[in-house]
Amino acid sequence: MGGPMLNTLAVSKRLTDAGMTRDQAEALTLAINEGLTGTSATKDDLSQTETVLRADIQATEKTLRGEIASTADALRADIQATEKTLRGEIASTTDALRAEIQATEKTLRAEIASSADNVKTELRKEIVDVKTELRKEINDSHTSVIRWVIGVGISQTAIILAVIALIKF
């Protein structure tokens, strides 16, 4: 890098005019000149640095874009794999739930059939009991009716005989 140009003679003269000794002015002027030439940048230096930085930025951008694309592809693959796994788990869970529902349905149907058979058996028993009771009541009613008919017949006969006996007297 080249540094800016310093007119060391003019600077040294100004310093001696200001009251410095010639040795002091020369030493200070040399120190300033060394500092400027070693650390100062020229327009060409800045232009070269800008060009290098632009190239670095473009290379970094290209690298980052590649990494982003690679990461996006990897994430898409992970998402697809996760989706496939989840779909498999959902299908497996659905099948298990369906099997459980069918087993529960079968159990409930068996319980309903058993309960229906028990109800039928109890109803048949009650029907038999009611029939037996009705037959007994009917038989009791027959006996009562027969007794009543016999009683009425005897009473009528007695009345008829009494009327005949009264008519004969």
Largest sheet: none
Total strands: the figure is: 0
Amount of beta strand: under 5%
User: What is the share of helical residues?
Assistant: over 70%
- C-alpha-based Rg, rounded: 64 Å
Question: Structural class, judged by helices and strands?
Answer: mainly alpha
Mean pLDDT: 90
Shape: rod-shaped
Low-confidence stretches: none
Distance from first to last alpha carbon:
180 Å
Write down the secondary-structure element order: HHH
**How many helices in DSSP terms?**
3
Walkthrough of the structure:
With 169 residues, the protein is an all-alpha fold. The chain contains three helices and no strands. Helix 1 runs antiparallel to helix 2. The chain is rod-shaped, with a radius of gyration of 64 Å.
In short:
It is built from 3 helices and no strands.
Question: Would you spell out the secondary-structure blueprint of this structure?
Answer:
Elements: H1 8-17, H2 22-39, H3 43-168
Helix pairs in contact: 1-2
What features would you highlight for this structure?
169 residues, mainly alpha, 0% strand, rod-shaped
